[in-house]
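ok so for the tutorial part 2 we go from a plain amino acid sequence to predicted structure tokens. step 1 is just haveing the sequence, like this:
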Amino acid sequence: MIRRRHRRAQLLCLLLSAGVGSLFQAGSRRLARSIPPGGATAPDCCRRATVGVASAQENQSRPSGGDVIPLRQVSDPYPVFNGIAIDPVNNVVAMSDVNRKSLLSYDRTADSSRSGITSPRRQVFGALTNIGFIAGVMLDPPRREIYAVNNDIEDTMVVMPYEAQGNAEPARILAIPHQAWGLAMSRREDQIALTVELQEAVVFYKREARNVTPPLRSIRGVNTGLADPHGIFWDDRHNEIGVANHGNYRGLIKDVGAGCVPTGSADPEGGAVLPSSITIYSGDAKGDVRPLRTIQGEKTRLDFPMGLSLDEERDEIGVANNGGNSVLVFSRTAKGDAAPVRVLSGDRTGINRPMGIAIDARNDELWVSNFGDHTALVFDRQASGNAAPKRVIRTAPAGTPTPGFGNPQTIAYDSTRDQILVPN
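step 2 — the prediction. this is what the tokens look like for a chain of 424 residues:
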């Protein structure tokens, strides 16, 4: 019995030192937030259990531990844009920075001077902000508030006043489902809607929701056509909601007591890779509802669509088409295998893995945030083809490379090619 307990204690130590790996990935992320900067300390039982092992290794050289300076470091020291939002009333544009974990705001007319860095009006970053792996961003001009969604670690939405700067605390924080990405608001309903990649859902909250307020409703189910949803818009005029889908359909997971299997399937590994799409729903939709319209097919040119923006005046939908290095514009009423009415793409555009898009009808402009470099681009609202931008906002000098890290969680070494592989 003593020997068995000893082995269990050793196993526990191994699990603790490895972070329990993928067995408890989500739980370890939350646990990591409670670990002090010096790292986790093994409990007394573990220290006692490993005394024998440590004694046997006393005569061997020990690897250094603690706060060790790396031999080399591959990192991007500059902000990289993700989501983007425009407030033409207050002449503010805001962008989320997934690389340095910050939120930046600029004057709407800001421009890069001689290919140098564009100075932001404000940059919010630091431990008190609760900003981490930040994705979607939205502006509320009447209340002068910035909404931002933490996508893959913190599982929160933060709301900041326009005047926030540095290591500022949010005005409020809302706990949201894991892997939320897109964000939209209905001023008529005074509600916000978030897309959730993992759950393949759209969830709705009161605008002023905070802490652990539960959602009002959700759109989710096998009939919805949601498949790895990202960008979203809320059209109050026509009472519609539009969602951009990558097409990675995981299946709807439910707990059946003996493990989790996709709904309607006996295969625990069920799922499918579907064509990318834009799905349109009634603004009042909830549950497992079919979309009113679906834009999907070869003619659409949709490829990894990220942000969406609605042009109410022109009755058009703008899409940051990440996989195609392009901006696609569709008629709001398009459906099926419909071709875009305009395509913005080419070397002169500077579009490089676009993540966000914002249409400014007041100033007749279209904004695009790039993930592939350190820029946000401003075009004429009706620009098409290989058109050059009117203005460029830069977070690094022109031509500065980026490693393209998104959300790396592990690495591998290829000894044949002497290369380090980093999946995002």
